[in-house]
Design a protein that fits this description.
Blueprint (H helix, E strand, L loop, with lengths): L1 E5 L7 H10 L6 E5 L5 H13 L3 H22 L3 H20 L7 H26 L5 E3 L15 H12 L7 E5 L2 E3 L5 E3 L5 H11 L4 E6 L20 E3 H9 L10 H6 L4 E5 L8 E4 L7 E16 L9 H11 L4 E6 L3 E6 L5 H8 L4 E15 L8 H9 L6 E4 L5 E7 L3 H17 L8
Parallel strand pairs: 1-2, 1-7, 2-4, 3-4, 7-9, 8-10
Antiparallel strand pairs: 5-6, 9-10, 11-13, 11-14, 12-13, 14-16, 15-16
Helix pairs in contact: 1-3, 2-3, 2-5, 3-4, 4-5, 6-7, 12-13
The chain binds aspartic acid and magnesium ion.
Length: 449
Amino acid sequence: MRILKFGGTSVGSAARMRSVADLIQSSEPRIVVLSAMAGTTNSLVAIAKLLFEGEIQAATSQTEILRQHYMMVARELLPEPAIAEEAISQLGTCFKTIFGLMRQPLSASGERVILAQGELLSTLLFHRYLTAIRGQEAVLLPALEFMRLDANDEPDDAYIREHLTQQLAPHTAQALFITQGYICRNAKGDIDNLKRGGSDYSASLIGAAAGADEIQIWTDIDGLHNNDPRVVEGTYPIRELSFDEAAELAYFGAKILHPSSVLPARQYNIPVRLLNTMQPEAPGTLISSKTGSEAIKAVAAKDGLVAIKIKSSRMLLAHGFLRSVFEVFERYRTPIDMITTSEVAVSLTIDDATHLTEILAELRDFGSVEIDENQTIICLVGNLIQENHGSARLVFNALGDIPLRMISYGGSPNNISLLVNTADKMRTLKALNAGLFQRQIFHSDASDD
Ligand code: ASP
Ligand code: MG
């Protein structure tokens, strides 16, 4: 079994859906996981927000605009009027669900039902197109029947495996399945989702549950790049990454892949291939248990961090100090990204500042506390520590006089993290690009993008 996931841009119009239909042709069994069409989830988020604010009129007209848009796409994708009208009436059930939720004040679970409609709409349309226009046999698998969260809101692997197997069982002769990314049910059985960008995670969970031999994530860029293409010129796709390297890059800013999606693939050792719908023949990025040979492969940046420094004389020669500090973050369920320590102080970063005030109040019991907001983590990923002496020198030479707030090296063999002011992010990325990758550009085959 092979899993092919297509993102919002890849299914963003009738023309894009036709290209996806070309790309999935194969005699091998495969499950195609689709996102909502580009822009749809954002619209649904906006509609729910209007409803929370009591703006029923505005929510109604925004939903009506979305409905008109889908009618237009349906007519374009399904050029036979009878087929188009039938599809429009099927799509209509999704819009009826949304309009139905406007009669009473919106609840959080109502919002999740609204958000789920995007993937239901895209898969319905695509499946109709495949079967009715291209005459291809394909089964529409309802993700809400097998994607499930447990009581901790984590994917319930055993449930997913059992129920996906049940859904596939009646169709032994079938080779092509279409299903929704992102949407699921929670432990109570209510409609829920895997958070924004979660379709990648769906694909990986489905791949793990189905024992897939490969998971393909199709987007509109040719793989994970060595640096942020929005900031730096001349970036190139990295051909091979290990699961650990990919997880670090996805978490620290490379927007192309949902960070959690590496985990199920790594657990079952299923290679993940990142491919480009606009350039299907390009090799993209292969994420597997193998690590390539280059020392520093890529740089990514994550904004929005707060650095907190706790300075305490109690830390000197004491044990249990760090535990007490971490317990504060634990109590507020706030993850820590980066940590550095000296004998009398500890600095750490968080990206979720929801409970910052309470956390700071508790930390003040330990000593003096300072914070720096608007910080950016620059994450360097590669095969950095064991075999490659001199990576650190290359990095520091490249950085020149850019001020660094924190440095973390040695936490894993694949990562060096630097914390800089967000105001210095652009020049840091550019300096690292010039110092680390410029040499490689000349012999990389990257100029094909
Ligand atoms: N449609 C959802 C979103 O826009 C999930 C996804 O595309 O991965 O976040
Ligand atoms: Mg995405």
